[in-house]
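#onboarding

Welcome to the new folks! Below is a worked example of what a typical request in this channel looks like: someone posts a single protein sequence, and someone else replies with the predicted structure as tokens. Don't worry about understanding the tokens yet, we'll cover that in week two.

Example request:
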Amino acid sequence: MLSASHSCFRVAKGATGEENGDVPENKDRHCKYLLEQDFPGMRIGPEPTTDSFIAVMYGESEGSVPGNALVVDPKKPFRKLSRFGNAFLNRFLCSQLPNQVLKSISIIDSPGILSGEKQRISRGYDFCQVLQWFAERVDRIILLFDAHKLDISDEFSEAIKAFRGQDDKIRVVLNKADQVDTQQLMRVYGALMWSLGKVINTPEVLRVYIGSFWAQPLRNTENRRLFEAEAQDLFQDIQSLPQKAAVRKLNDLIKRARLAKVHAYIISYLKKEMPTMFGKENKKKELISRLPEIYSQLQREYHISAGDFPEVRKMQEQLEMCDFTKFHSLKPKLIEAVDNMLANKIASLMNLITQEESNMPTEMVHGGAFDGTMAGPFGQGYGEGAKEGADEDEWVVAKDKPAYDEIFYTLSPINGKISGINAKKEMVTSKLPNSVLGKIWKLADCDGDGMLDEEEFALAKHLIKIKLDGYELPGTLPPHLVPPSHRKPLQTAE
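Example response:
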């Protein structure tokens, strides 16, 4: 799990245990991969038991703070975790270290999920409630699976259900995908999506990142390009967290305001239906059993979306412990104030946040594994597609130009150039859509005369090859792709 001064990143580990003789590898390896550094409390190696919740945060010096001391620290956001008791606090600690990554994000590393016979062992605290507490406060939730073991245990299923209502935060990582070949990977991916579909009730397909997210050599390199692209996408998703922290907090405020408004309608209705003298307990039981019907009635009366209501079963459990006679009646002025805030003040606040973010420098996550994806020859896409040949003296198209020239001279050039009609006859053989070929023509016609000389034609064929190989075309022609005869001579100072 990652956390930082601006945002939090939550990792929920996939199923671990000793089912069918499997001994799992410890999840802490993945945090070390992102930080490129050990942190206090981590353990790497075969791990037959689960570990603690670890909050990995920035600190000037390396050290750890146990859970009981952590929840009384006013400078840390964990004080409300004290309600989960000593059984949880004894399995919770904060690991602090001076790591560049942790200046932007913080990590909350969860214990492994139990599977097989180990699910019957009680943790001593409400594990799913703790997960829900963190899920409501973090900015990203990562569900981590190993490609060679996809079992979703009963505990993992319950853990995912604890994230209900936080679907926009969830990302799925299919790790160690290099341990299977392409055919097996397709089957594994399909099995994972099928398994998740049974647990996560959402019409949207979850984003799944496929790769090998640990600093070890790839066992199977045939999907290396896919793994690199997926890793880049995941890093970009994480790097966007500090930039959008204020917007996400505002979004959480809106969700809480809508939920509070709905709660007010529910509570006031229950209060109104209670008798003044006799039969209070029987009426309470009746109202709790009729809660789904009450939801429907309030939806129609106040024009509220069904998605704004709390889960029926959970609400019924909480109402069992309440005295309905002590509930407050509805206060229309407060409801009006909330509606005014949502309709007017939130929009103004959003504009202020947007202006402030546009005036501030772009904040990125630096350090650890993130630096390895940004620049240099091992950055994403370096030396590939339109970037091929960027650091070479020779024009990159030159190596294939003899073959392109043979085609060029079959297209009836006049004065060393072919017309757009003749060029089109050859370019459409690529079967690319006209919108793509039109962009290639615009890039290749360097002098804008509506015709192509042999270098411009070779460039057009090179750009077609780039697109057919699965790369994106550049928005403007990079200097290294400009044909030599169309390059402007360098001006030397006299």
